[in-house]
Amino acid sequence: MTTERAYHHGDLRRALLTAALDVIATEGPTALSLRDLARRAGVSHAAPAHHFKDRAGLLTAIAAEGHDLLLTALAEAEDLRDLGARYVHFATSHPAHFQIMFRPELLRPDDPELLAARERTRSRLRTAVEGHGNDPAIGFVAAWSLAHGFATLLLSRNLDGPLEGRDPDEAFRAMASEMFRPAEPPATG
After folding, report:
1. Number of domains in the chain
2. pLDDT tens by residue, 119-150
3. CATH of residue 11
4. In terms of residue numbers, what domain contains 31?
5. 52 Cβ partners below 8 Å, 6+ apart?
6. Domain co-membership, 48 together with 68
7. Do residue 40 and residue 128 come from a single domain?
């Protein structure tokens, strides 16, 4: 349940982001309004616009923050399987960010902070895929699709039955091991 807290002379921008993440996690992004966030924070209805201009600006800030959090989660990955498992773990640990990060219709597509954060994340993912398969671009899309699809199915509870109680991180690692084995050299002889 959403807890309403009045803002008290601190970081209003952070307070609004936190309240927005709470709304997204409990009610989804369509329930989000700047007026409601202002009410929750105990500030004038115009105060959020000073930080975000509009709803798209707020959601763009959440997406950029999500990419930075994801990059941090991926930083220490040991291999491609670990990277994917960390991606899935990020999605389940930050479901509100994850819901917004990949919804371009909700975001400002030309926002410099979002573009830079998104590129840092993609670069980390592309680097991890290098050496796995013959076509790095297709390998990147395949690896990202596998982790993102698994995370999305997990968050929407579509894997509750098929996983049969298995730990999602371990299930993902096993699946990734099956799908992304290092390329074997061609047989000679």
Report:
1. 2
2. 999 999 988 888 777 788 888 898 899 999 99
3. 1.10.10.60
4. 1-52
5. 16, 34, 58, 61
6. no
7. no
The three-state DSSP-derived secondary structure of the chain is CCCCCCCCCCCHHHHHHHHHHHHHHHHCHHHCCHHHHHHHHCCCCCHHHHHHCCHHHHHHHHHHHHHHHHHHHHCCCCCHHHHHHHHHHHHHHCHHHHHHHCCHHHCCCCCHHHHHHHHHHHHHHHHHHCCCCCCHHHHHHHHHHHHHHHHHHHHCCCCCCCCCCCCHHHHHHHHHHHHCCCCCCCCCC
Amino acid at 128: A
Residues 126 and 159 in one domain: yes
- Same-domain status, 76 and 151: yes
| CA–CA separation, 105 and 126 (whole Å) | 24
- Spell out the per-residue pLDDT of the chain, length 189, in tens: 444 455 555 688 998 999 999 999 999 999 999 888 888 888 888 888 888 989 999 999 999 999 999 999 999 998 888 999 999 999 999 999 999 999 999 999 999 999 999 999 999 998 888 877 778 888 889 889 999 999 999 999 999 999 999 999 899 999 888 876 666 666 675
Predicted TM-score of the model (pTM): 0.85
> Do 120 and 97 belong to one domain?
yes
